[in-house]
Amino acid sequence: MPDCAPHFNAKRWKPPNLAISSIAGNIEGHNVYVADLILQRERVHETVKELIAKYKPDVVGLTAMSFQFATARRIAGIMKGLNKNIKIVLGGYHATVMYDEVCKGDEADPFDFFVRGEGDLCFNELLEAINGKRPIEGIPGVSFRNDGRFIHNPQRPLEDLSKIKIPDRSKRIWKGYQYYGFTLDIVESSRGCVMPCNFCSIDKMYGRSFRRFSIERILADIANAKQQGANFIIFSDDNFTLDVKGFESLCDAIAEAGHNDIRYIIQASSTGIASSETLAKKMARAGFRIVFLGIENVSEENLKLMKKGNIIEKTKLAVKRLHEQDIMIVGGMIIGNPNDREEDIALNYKFFVDSQIDFFADQILTPYPRTGMREELLQAGLVTNKYDYSRYNCFWANVKTHHLESEDLQFLRWKYNKKYADYICTTPAFIKNYPLAYYYRHYFRRPFLRLKNMVSRNKPSEKELYQRDMARAEAMNKFF
Q1: Which three-class secondary structure state does DSSP give residue 27?
Q2: pLDDT, tens digit (0-9, with 9 covering 90-100), for 352-391
Q3: Is there a single domain that holds both residue 390 and residue 277?
């Protein structure tokens, strides 16, 4: 789907969808094309029409998270309008956790099948059923129409990762994936997480589990991404540091294979990074340059509510060890917890600045479908948007607290982003990694913007700036 959370600069942040390339790599006996609409955000409607006219597909698979579901449904409707005989399959998070609700109403109208859970091998089995080579009733994880209603086959067991081939990136129709000027791709080394965090939804996809791909398979995947032009790779693992020893072995293998000539981003826990004295050094040697660190909050009460435990000291140690190796940190922050006041929110931003966290990934608590946190917030009457999932992207406030309304949370996130805007890209780790970008921003761009604001005759008020930025965010994912 083309939808992108408004946190991101959609012109400079264009990541590929690894899942559809993985499915392409595991389909046998068919012509397969991968059309990633993140690269066609400016002309989605026209592009969908052109794709159908050019490739004349028999089957189209769409994948969508909850905030992308409305777009997926619209695209499916456009396709059916062009050719009612196309079979359309929906997979991804929303299809996995909300299939029953969707299939009971008219939201399922443009879809013929749902793939629940992992689709790497399931999609190929579904194609065999469509071709009459096997009974569809025998494919776990598939939902299909029968006499006007959907039949839901039993849940599919987790896949044996050794049976999943590497993604087929050659099937991608377009190029242009990027991360701020770098050619970007995505690789995975593991799936799942066993942490008890109740705000996260990944256990609804994989259960409370953790599985690793073999090191040989991971290195082959990296090599394939590099052959396709990647010089920056994101590991999509849910929690890279659940197996610290395994991670260290992978770091050694990456360096020994010569794949440390590019840069890597991972998502990790403070606890995992802090647990090893050698991990950060091995990461630096292997080429890891950015870590999304799950700090979440600096309030002991909020961490307890999230079932994260008190990780503040471990966070400080993790930050110290990563910065000693000049590895930059994107700090994950969640605001909008039930007892949050403005001073609680401000304290989180101050902690990030005092700790020299390089970038903020500040999110508003989102009541994702089927999570424990959603149920607790619903019972407390704190969910203000229950069903418009298009706004469930961590940017929009869908909750309130006992002290702040949704509008307050939306404004406070914007306010403290603005307050610390000059701080971003000034940390020692950032300067070490991107000196030219630092000098450009610090000595040219920012002075120019300040001068422009000073001489402006119609300097906008704080309210006008806020309304302008929210209007831009609102317009970001309007494609039709």
Answers
A1: coil
A2: 999 999 998 999 999 999 999 999 999 999 999 999 999 9
A3: yes
- Judgement on whether residues 357 and 450 belong to the same structural domain of the protein: no
Residues 462 and 347 in one domain: no
- Residue ranges making up the domain that contains 393: 177-433
- Residues 23 and 134 grouped into a single domain: yes
In a domain, 303, yes or no: yes
CA angle 332, 354, 393 (to 5 degrees): 20
Same structural domain, 290 and 428 = yes
- Is the pTM value of this prediction over 0.85? yes
Helical residues (DSSP H) of 298-427, grouped into ranges: 300-305, 312-324, 342-354, 372-379, 406-419
Residues whose CB is less than 8 angstroms from the CB of residue 184 and which lie 6 or more positions away in sequence, other chains included: 14, 15, 16, 177, 178, 230, 232, 233, 234
Residue reference for tokens 């790497």: 120
Residue 201: phi, psi to the nearest 5? -110, 0
First to last CA, the chain: 13
pLDDT one-digit tens code per residue, 248-277: 999 999 999 999 999 999 999 888 999 999
What's the full length of the chain, in residues? 480
In a domain, 306, yes or no: yes
How far is Cα 49 from Cα 40, in angstroms, rounded to an integer? 12
Alpha-carbon gap, residue 386 to 389, rounded angstroms = 8
- Give residue 311's identity as a one-letter amino acid code: I
* Residue 469 structure tokens: 């930025």
Number of domains in the chain: 3
How does strand 182-187 pair with strand 288-296? unpaired
The owner of tokens 């300097």 is 459
Residues 6+ apart with CB under 8 A from 292: 265, 266, 267, 268, 330, 332, 361
In a domain, 319, yes or no: yes
